[in-house]
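Entry 14. Structure prediction run on the chain below.
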Amino acid sequence: MEKITHTLAREGNGNVQITFTLPWAMIEKAKKEALETLAKDTEVAGFRKGKAPLDLAEKKISENTVIEKALSTLLPKALADAIVEYKVKPAVYPKFELVSAKESEVWQVRAVTCELPAVELGDYKKIVAGELRSKSLVKEPTKEEKEQIVVGTLLESVKLDIPHLLIHDEADSRISNLLARIEKLGLSLESYLTSIGKTPETLRQDYEKQAKEAIALDLILNKIAESENIKVKEEDVENMIKAAKADPNVKGNLDTPEQRQIIGSILKRRYALDSLITQV
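Output returned:
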């Protein structure tokens, strides 16, 4: 029996590509099953929902929808098998791209993901302490200034190759938030860009730089928290949730296992940063 095969390729920008080759017989069977499933929720004039003949229902369903449904039944297990075989540790769920899809021929689908880079801290404490001392010789910095010194020193001294996929996704998220804020103000993107002297290209560059630094800092602080065995108390998480609930601008339920984990991670990075700010 034919099966799905796969190959791995690592890109210079940190991305990982897994290309799947799917036999036509498998695709044909999956498409037929997908069509039958989709037909059950398809309305055709003159028939009760899901009761129309398959050939009539098929005319109401786009080919792309059938393909997506078929691949969604075949690729998850193939992806899981490839991840195990290649010992890949995906940082994000892969993005899939249909490379070739000709009738009666094998199909190829490419999955693109990335792995988090290894973090080598080096003698970060000595470097940070030295930078703080040198700045203090001129003028005693405030806590906020110390924080900026520590952050800048960590980003400069701990070199990381951040995968472009992570940077791209984070930049997209930040730009989406910006567009939502602009829309609330009743402005157009063009007028906003004109007001700040930016073009779409330079705005994108700025957000990608911010995204790269934010991701790098999170990874560095996570590594510091791990190396220093920094722990977060449950009561600290509780206090943060209570404070957030008191803020009318905060929406959604924060008291869930997933949100607690996120809050705990944020606090752990905060404690790691604070430990460096107060060392001098």
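The domain at 124-277 is CATH 1.10.3120.10 (Trigger factor, domain 2).
Filed with the rest of this week's runs.
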